[in-house]
Amino acid sequence: MAIWLLWLGVGYRAALMGEHDSAQYVGRTTSALGGGAADAALDGRAMSGLDRELVFSALGDSSRRRLLDRLRVENGLTLSELCDGLDITRQAVTKHLKVLEAANLVVARRRGREKLHFLNPVPINAVAMRWLREFDALPLDVLAALPAEGNRD
Question: What is the spatial distance between Cα 151 and Cα 114, in angstroms, rounded to a whole number?
């Protein structure tokens, strides 16, 4: 869980400090949530069940997770830049980006003839906070201390 939170923090900072004018994107994304609703979205209350399903579905594919990882490292990439070094076709990358955009995990912005893609960490954070809050109440340390079923002596 800590890895995801670190991933979110780095991605958000990269969006705020990126060289592709991505600070405007972050402001636009959070303001699109409706002002005060942005705070609620950060802890999962503003997301509908369908929105959560879209996020989980988008994250369920390893190629889409690789695209998100690339945007976390360097935000504001073009389609060509995203395709570099991948073992899938440009058309497949385009299809994956459409799924990520539908889940609001990636936001595209035009700059002249280029279409730049930016990571939006808000939906991942909202889903993570909803699940973290649910599972934080469980006594996981007690469960982890129990011997595994196959290792009983």
Answer: 57
> CA angle at residue 111 from 108 to 115, to 5 degrees?
40
Q: Which of 93, 97, 88 is nearest to 119 (CA)?
A: 97
pTM exceeding the 0.70 threshold for the entire prediction: no
Residue 56: which H helix or E strand, with range? Answer: helix 49-59
What distance in Å separates the CA atoms of residue 63 and residue 110, rounded to the nearest whole number? Answer: 23
Give CA torsion, residues 126, 131, 133, 138, to 10 deg: -170
Rounded CA-CA distance 5/32 in Å is 23
Lowest-confidence segment of 21-30, 58-67, 76-85, 113-122 by average pLDDT: 21-30
Alpha-carbon distances of 32 from 28, 80, 102, 109, rounded to whole Å: 6, 28, 15, 14
Q: Is the pLDDT of residue 101 over 60?
A: yes
Residue 79, CB-side half-sphere exposure with 13 Å CA sphere: 18
The model's confidence at residue 127, banded by pLDDT at 50, 70 and 90, is confident
